[in-house]
histidine kinase
Amino acid sequence: MSSPTPARRRLRLPRRMFSQVLLMQLAIAAGVTVLATGLFLAPLGRQLDEQAMRRALAIAETTAENRQLARDLRNTAPSADGPVQQEAERIREATGAEYVVVMDTRGTRWSHTDPRQIGEHVSTDPGAALAGQKVMEIDTGTLGRSARGKVPLYDDDHRVVGAVSVGIAYNSVRAKLIDAIPGLFAYAGGALAAGALAAWLISRRVQRQTRDLAFSDIAALLAEREAMLHGIREGVVALDRRGRVRLLNDEARRLLGIGDEALGRSPDEALGEGRTTDVLAGRVTGTDLLTVRGQRVLVANRMPTGDGGAVATLRDRTELEQLGRELDSTRGLIDALRAQDHEHANRMHTLLGLLELEMYDDAVEFVGEVVGDHRATAEQVTEKIQDPLLAALLVGKATVAAERGVALWLSDRTRLPDRLVDPGGLVTVVGNLVDNALDAVAATPHARVEVELRAEGRTAALRVRDTGPGVPADQRDLIFTEGWSTKRPPAHRNRGIGLSLVRRLAERQGGTVTVGEADGGGAEFTVVLPEALAEEGPVLESALEPALTAAVETAEEEAR
């Protein structure tokens, strides 16, 4: 098939945005110039016509005021050399009018530019002027098209004895209009040139800002951006140069717990006070910043944009943190088992030596002491703490503390019944505080950690004291901030979350967390939970105590 001829090819706009914007703006500038010129010429023509008719009327009125002309009209006959013709020609030559015609009440001419027309009837209707009216019009007579004015001619007794008609050549009016057009086009051309220059400058700016992409490319990019933003599994929050939220994808709405009402508002207005707000607003800087929003642990990064705004990304680290804490719990259990295995091996070696030395009575006494120590530890915990999860936690922590050379004590005032509303939450609180205390007293002489748990009505109070270096007064508010820590983070997760979660869990139950200085030095953490316990009911035996007692009895039987 033959290719289409150029005449048949469709005219297409150029693809480059610079060319398209320039052409559109030039077309707009040219259209506005033409429209403005046309709108100016139309009233200009009417204005010139109005001026010509008023000038003709003024000449006619001035001529009619000559009373001698009225007397000559009544006392003489119409002729080419009569006084009326001579006066009319004098006025015509003096004013530059095309003609000055004086007529009587019958419409007969007494003056005319062409003397042969004197004595003939006028070519246009003189009725209005002879009736005493003033007339302005543009009409065609024997001398062609003209702007004319007609007025009645009065005698000394103020009676109409005729009329005066004055004409201004219409061609002279049109000539004035034509003479004005070049100047008008000069102004219009200047305006068009200025518009073209402004269009070029604007197009260049648009070209730089859009990187010379076509409109179709920009539309495709916007569609792809929407699909990408709402399809990725990271939260994206875009802020403008004033710090207001201008974009939220679906994941950001889910992680932050906000909706479209946050658009156009600052993070402080949309989220309230907190570390998450500080990170989004740029008051806290850094990479992979940890923050807690509700029950979610988030990793936030904020990147400034070229227009003065910023884009923040949010990743949900909640499950990873939970896995990390489960790993910590597993490591704690492994440490406890390793400590027990190490201690058990030492005791077995001691027992083996006593048996080889045939010191049977001493061997029996040694086994009784070992079993008694385990029984005493388990009984001490279960007697004071009847919740099985919390009791099991403290028994395990006591073993870990012993292996690390730290004495873990329960205060004599510890009493906690088995009616906790959220045992798992309190386990998290106690576990984090005890772990921090064990880390604080590590490698210190006479290391000791004391735990106190008391219940008053529905309120539970927890105190954890240690003999470590304590917390400086100027840092007691910072230690509960997400991401704050003085310790090197482990490989599997960041630090600085434990104390923040303790505060969050306490605040969720309407409680408080404070830190101060313990008696004799060290730190003392106090947690008060107003509604941590359910209403009082019948006292039940701890579910953990029988199991611990059975385990101890089994160990005694195996030792025997």
